[in-house]
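Please review this one:
***
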Amino acid sequence: MVAPLTPSPSGPPGRSFPCGRCSKQIRVLNECLAQEVVSCPYCGTEFRLRRKAVSHRKRQPSSPVTEQPTSLPWPEKKSLGSSFILIGTIGVILISGIGIAAVVAFPSGAVSDATPKQISDVSESTPKPAVTPTPSQERGSQIVEIEETPSTGSEPKRATTPPDPEPSSETVLIRGVLSVLEKYCYECHGQGGTDEGGFNFVLSLEKIAASERYVLPGDSENSPLIQKINSHEDPHVAVSLETEELGILEEWIDLGAPTLPGEERVFISNEAMMEVIHHDLVKTLTTDEERRDTRYLTLTHLYNAGWDEDELETTRLALNKMINSLSWNKNLIPLEPIDAEKTIFRLRLAILGWTPAIWNRILDVSPYRVLPDSSNVQACIEATDSQSPMIRGDWFITEAARPSLYYEILELPESLAGLEDLLEVSLLENHDQERVHRAGFAKSGIAANNRVIERHPSRFGAFWISYDFADNEERRNIFEHPLGPGPAVENFRPDGGEILFELPNGLHAYMLVDDLGQRVDKAPLELVQDENQPDHHVVAAISCFSCHSLGILAKEDEVRATVLADPERFEQRDHLLSIYTDREEFRKIQEEDAKNYAKRIQQLGIRRVSHSSEPIRNQLQRYQQDLDLNRAAAELGVDSAQLADWIQSDADETNALSPLANPKGTVSRDDFLNEFTRIATALGLGVEIGAERVEPLKTAEIESQLGRTRPVSTPGRLEPLDEEGDGNPNPPAQQPPAKRPSKSKSDASEPKPPAQRFWKDHSGKVLSIGDFLRMENQDTVVIKDANNRELRVLLNDLSPADGEFVQSQIQATPKTVGSPQPELRRQPVERSQFPTKERPATRQEVVPEIPRTFPPRVAPPSPRRSQTTFQPSRPVVPSPPPPRRIVVPDDLSKRFGIPRGAIIDENRLRQILANKRGPSL
């Protein structure tokens, strides 16, 4: 039974006690039964009541929460004078006790009746004597003892204060909406930084009401929030809303979704932020070495933009995960805030395993290159020996999760062989010694063809690698060729792979490799696809963060059953059964790795982990959203009214931000970043990073003396001596990156470069993305893929629209006299071979007829011409011989990071060596 709620504190008889959360007085009626639940009408905190029997002996009034003291007995024999003295003394004590009890029981503030629902602990504000705990107390809730008074009597007089003004019906409705959302939604959408589905501001009614993605003010029936609730599609809602609670939400929306006044914040200027950083450098850090090793990440602009604490906490968690995912420290490193708002965080480069060169590389690609021109900034630059001591945290999360900055910060090798050496893992030895756990299956979440994944022990923990295939034919069919990879004809031949390995702190790092084992930024579309990316490419490492938010994904092997079903079919049956692990054992291995990863994630403060709540992926999507006037002004570091006035006064100069003059106007993230430096300097917010240190004349003189462009570095980073030995110990400061071209009216008529074309098959599936280059023969289209490599696509695999596009490109190409245009035909083309590391010769997996050493380059002898030579009327051009296939020797493999035993064309090998050593090879 729930305690009745009366609107006035001066109603029927009852007792009052202070709320342990908001300190307001709660008044409980005498009609309340024992074990009844009541709640505070101000903050919603719940209490469970327990009646206390009324003693017939006269007692001192006291707080209803504390037990009443035992009454003192009267003396048996006393004289009349002593009796009067004793009576007077007791009277004084009674009067004093009444006053003290009134002060304790009824402090300043309104006294209101209790309402039903919710349980809380009130021991902090209301001390109680030690009593035997009840079952409810053992579960964490405390009992509030209420002494019953006769219903006919009147309440004792007490000191009263003017009650708070009674809230309006609209305020009561808004509080009811917040109560419903907090009860059902807050746990997954904001509490502790939770960000399920990218929705982490469920208690921010102002933002919900301003977005048509959630509510349509005045139309609750068509509001997405109500439709989502009624559809029961949200798997994270454990129970459905009650009818009366749903009615509160619908009534709020139908009334126009009103909100309460928000919290007023003091705007933090860029100069004030730099003052805090300078104070931390000077006052907190004690040595110059510590100052040179210290950098800062900031979220102050998000605080200025009005993000509530839940939203800021989500970004803090994403930033903490990103920093530790780029660290080689064996321990997880917590963020260290240096300000009261927790928006400025101190980093130590040495602890992360970073060098000043890595920080300078991050600064090179940062679009926020304007700092206040003040003494605080100059002192910070000198103390840290850097062009800028801080970068923006939300931008860093977005940029560091993508290539090539991700690879550069972690300093990952450029090949799979180099990564094996770094992590002290040998794939071939583990295969030979059967120290690998493997699973093969026909379908995967991101791969359209069959796939193999396997786990190896490494220096820091688990090392997982996948073998991906462009199709399921011939040696790309793992059920026909389960053994591999390798050059033998019975081994499967993968076209690429993905690598997931544990860092020393237990988090994961990722790397993508191509068919040669070389590191790439994006995986080909014919292998794997990521629907969350605009171009559908699997991108390192943001696609990996999103897909492996729970760690390693559970997969079941299907190859082992094939081997057991037909044992005579496979010669190395025992070896296959040893590496293709039993399903139950493989499941335990995956669960153990996923459990270890989840434990590390929870240590970072991420209390809820799911595919839709991955903090780095959600932060990247949130950062790429369009900016309104308030967000743009906050990122610049000015008031929104000041930015609006400047846009209107300089409309011609701010073409990119002119949409912000509209109250509901927005600009894209790319347009804003293109104009950031120019607008910030025009507003007088500071100077560009490194602009005051650039010496163009001196740089030009150096280049003219060397006869070429010499790479320069930032202060504090020395360049090695060049080939001529003219190294400069004090190189000039690095030139700031060229400004992005601003969109002005003058160049509006210039043609824009065509976007890369999506090549699709007949079913509409994206095969690749790139620009058309040429037709290699009658049936093969050559395009440039996302990694700027030539990719060959069969004409018969293309959709009719793409086929017509190819025909139009051929017709638009100028014809050369005597060279007919290729005729389009559709026939299969032999695919290139995938070189892999060879097994030891004991397994007889090396093709004997292929040479084992790379032949030296020897110029062929020039033929001796006779004096009488037949000269044909048309020169005969002999066709070039087909390139030889070469097995890469071990010394070249170790020297240049090429997989050992790889079989590649001679021309391809020469190209790789040329890129490694230069044109001399």
Q: What stands out?
A: The two ends are 89 Å apart (CA to CA). Residues 80-105 form the longest helix (26 residues). The first strand starts at residue 14 and ends at 18. DSSP finds 29 helices and 24 strands in the chain.
